[in-house]
Amino acid sequence: MPILKKSGWLAGFWFGSVGLVAALVHLLVFEALRHLVRPEVANLGGFLVAFGVSFTGHRRLSFKDAQTSLQQSLVRFLVTAIAGFFANELCFIFLLHRLGWSAWPALIVALVVAAGQTFILSRWWAFRR
To answer: What span, in angstroms and rounded, lies between the C-alpha atoms of 65 and 78?
Structure first.
């Protein structure tokens, strides 16, 4: 099994750090909105705000050696993020409505489920090295 290069570990560290900050932003916006709108809409609001945090952080830190232009990365990351959001929202709705979970645990699990997909698509496509 090959050993991950230092740059791989660093990219993983930054991906995790940026992802954590973006997830916290998502959760804060969700909390601010969830008493005003349906939880699914509050989740969308959190995603939209967190997208900017996520793209900026990943472009500047996680994948700073990307060989794609800023515009190409933005379009690809938008597709990646939308795919992640669909996975997130479907998981969230299933846990919330089918299994009867409360909103916070359902959202946290949904964010974790979408994170793996987002990393793979970001690393190998949106910010291709």
So the answer is: 19
Structure tokens, 52: 């900017």
- Tokens 């291709």 belong to 128
The structure tokens listed for 48 are: 């939209």
pLDDT digit string (tens) for 83-121?
999 999 999 999 999 999 999 999 999 998 888 787 777
C-alpha distances out from residue 107 to 61, 68, 76, 111, 124, Å: 26, 32, 24, 6, 26
The residues, any chain, with a CB within 8 Å of residue 105's CB and separated by 6 or more, are: 95
Q: Are 123 and 11 in contact (CB under 8 A)?
A: yes
pTM of the model: 0.81
